[in-house]
Amino acid sequence: MDIIVFILSVAVFLLGLALFSNRVRARQEIPFDLKPNCLLTRWPLLFVTGPRSIFYFSSYWNLYTSFLAEHGYEVFTLHLPWKDSEERRERVAHFLDQQEKHQRRFHLFVDTPTLTELKDLLAQRKSPAVISLSEIRDAHVPAEPGSLKGFPPPLGGD
Fold this sequence. Notes:
The chain is α/β, with parallel strands linked by helices and 158 residues long. The protein has helices at residues 2-27, 64-70, 85-101, 112-125; strands spanning 45-48, 75-78, 106-111, 130-136.
């Protein structure tokens, strides 16, 4: 009986810690300035959520999206399933189908695990909806050489 109480106590403690850490991260203030005229674009920015866990689930991109939106950029977030890699790929493929149908374009921002998951899909598909692709990664992690070939330039009078 004592072991069950102990396990339940630890589970409740870990759940509380997970919720507390997500709230603290969402409220944290990171001091940085936006340099003027560094990112001039007529296309919206699309941030794709990466794999999440109970310890990192809310506000995946922290302050990036709200900070850019406050400075006049049109910013969207594509929320993907938490873990299942195949479901995540299917959701992105469906999203690209919808955007191509409506002739929408955007700049895509992903983290390293998401880029690894979607690399083949994006390279094979060469969607005209994706104007550019940027990988957000830790500064100390070097970029993989030749990770993706360039996307085709957009066609049309837009």
